[in-house]
Amino acid sequence: MIVTKDERPKSRNHDFYLFHALMMLSMTMLFLPVTGTSKQNIPRLKLTYKDLLLSNSCIPFLGSSEGLDFQTTLLDEERGRLLLGAKDHIFLLSLVDINKNFKKIYWPAAKERVELCKLAGKDANTECANFIRVLQPYNKTHVYVCGTGAFHPVCGYIDLGIYKEEVMFKLDTHHLESGRLKCPFDPQQPFASVMTDEYLYSGTASDFLGKDTAFTRSLGPTHDHHYIRTDISEHHWLNGAKFIGTFPIPDTYNPDDDKIYFFFRESSQEGSTSDKTILSRVGRVCKNDVGGQRSLINKWTTFLKARLICSIPGSDGADTYFDELQDIYLLPTRDERNPVVYGVFTTTSSIFKGSAVCVYSMADIRAVFNGPYAHKESADHRWVQYDGRIPYPRPGTCPSKTYDPLIKSTRDFPDDVISFIKRHPVMYKSVYPVVGGPTFKRINVDYRLTQIVVDHVVAEDGQYDVMFLGTDVGTVLKVVSISKEKWKMEEVVLEELHIFKHSSVILNMELSLKQQQLYIGSRDGLAQLSLHRCDTYGKACADCCLARDPYCAWDGNACSRYAPTSKRRARRQDVKYGDPITQCWDIEDSISHEAADEKVIFGIEFNSTFLECIPKSQQASIKWYIQRSGDEYREELYIVQDMQYCFLN
Ligand SMILES: *[C@@H]1O[C@H](CO)[C@@H](O)[C@H](O)[C@H]1NC(C)=O
Ligand SMILES: *[C@@H]1O[C@H](CO)[C@@H](O)[C@H](O)[C@H]1NC(C)=O
């Protein structure tokens, strides 16, 4: 099957006359449908940075610059804007076009702080500056912002004015406050925060050295401050925790049960002290926790945590664990109590390099929190299942008048509840992925996954969750996991996109459903990317169908965005099997030879010319022909293809 397009530049004749010894090379792309033995895990479409720019579906932010660390974003869909926190800067961008009339605030660290930071041996460029780490909506007019302030965190308010009036964008420099326990000291450290009802929940290190880590609540309405944190005295509450994400999630219809869930990884010392490993965890606290009365004063009294497992069976029978949580994304469902939890994990091992995506349900997470507690007799003992008496109310339950009129607040908890939770913050059972193992994995590749965003897409033949996965080399993978017969899943990599010119760790991804755009932040830049570029799959029904992209369908003329509301006729799509025979059997031009995708490159004799020999579509092949000036016929070139290089013979 050959699909075609003529890309000959208009200036061809002009060039032709200018150079005598001109050599013309033309390229024919053959699209070969691969049925049955489709190459697993090879992206259907691989676009370089240049290809992406040409496709008009990716716009780099012009304010980008090396080392600016675009790692904090705040999306405001309603007003169509994005706040972006970077090194010494906060930007205000339009979601439609990030380069149109953007505004910025310059907020460097205090000079004396920069000097002290450098004296402490930190790096002047990558550490001793004000890296913005918190951008949270505070009230109708103000956004709360915190920066690392050269290892001396500072917070303040940005005035954005009232909606629909002229946009303000001003940092209130008269009311800056300490950012300790709200914002990390170290710009590189993973960190999570969320603001709800004017309270800020943060998981971070509390000091310069980053040894003590805490999950805290601060701020709040003026009449009702309840600063509260995790207990420090007990070793196993948190141990060098790196916080990845935190979210308010209601547990039942009773608002008293509302909880804050947080996801993190931490060191674990099991049994012997030498046996130190990293574990990933989910933790939770009640929103209405105000601490204990006689013990655990201003400390959480409802804190519990459980282990998140993401593993595959190894060749030797023992499981291989992806233990280091890198990112969490909650895919909303119709029920706000039950978002789907997507996690990106990497391995700790230096021998076995890999990343995986594991998916969890809130029901499974709650079941583990409702299950047995873990018990550790002393530092030398292992964790075992706690079999003793459990005090009332069950530790970890939120206080609620509707359940027990005598327990209106956590201060009313009996002493045995408080002392129990102090010693038993860990659940005995672990949370396993809904399908038992990873939904997607990448093993033995020279990059790691760092970020995830998921979009629920309605296609002609079903509903699909499309994952956008950021890597540490500046690429984004677009992946769909398709369930087949007998619970079997098929991973289909739709696209591999080079978002940034240079390989740069992707630090943040924000999804705008309204704009159908992703906003991708890295060490050196920010870019906006369309969720789909259907026309790049090709100009024929078969290409569109083979792509298996839930966003795209053949509309009779082109491969275009599929909208479930549009008239059903003539929309051809087969995400599940990608079989062009059933979808495009009656469409003639898809089997015509004349329409082959053709590209012309001019070369000068005895000089070298670069010929692309790896097709963008991994299921296509490229042929080059040589045609000398004046000649009528073309001669096929034999090219030796050695992975990335082509040699002319
Ligand atoms: C929002 O908070 C800021 C900072 O505390 C305050 O100055 C402002 O008046 C508040 N705005 C509204 C609408 O409550
Ligand atoms: C060969 O190509 C290079 C770069 O395109 C150019 O600078 C050079 O002049 C060319 N040599 C000849 C002999 O045309």
From TrEMBL:
Keyword vocabulary terms for this entry: Disulfide bond, Glycoprotein, Membrane, Transmembrane, Transmembrane helix
Classification via SUPFAM superfamilies: Plexin repeat, Sema domain
Transmembrane annotation, as ranges: 16-34
GO MF annotation, one: semaphorin receptor binding
Boundaries of every Sema domain copy: 44-531
CDD domains for the chain: Sema_3D
Biological-process GO terms, alphabetical: axon guidance; neural crest cell migration; positive regulation of cell migration; semaphorin-plexin signaling pathway
InterPro entries assigned: PSI (IPR016201), Sema3D_Sema (IPR042582), Semap_dom (IPR001627), Semap_dom_sf (IPR036352), Semaphorin (IPR027231), WD40/YVTN_repeat-like_dom_sf (IPR015943)
Coiled-coil region list: none
SMART domains noted in UniProt: PSI, Sema
UniProt GO cellular component terms: extracellular space; plasma membrane
Protein name listed in UniProt: Semaphorin-3D isoform X2
Organism: Tursiops truncatus (Atlantic bottle-nosed dolphin)
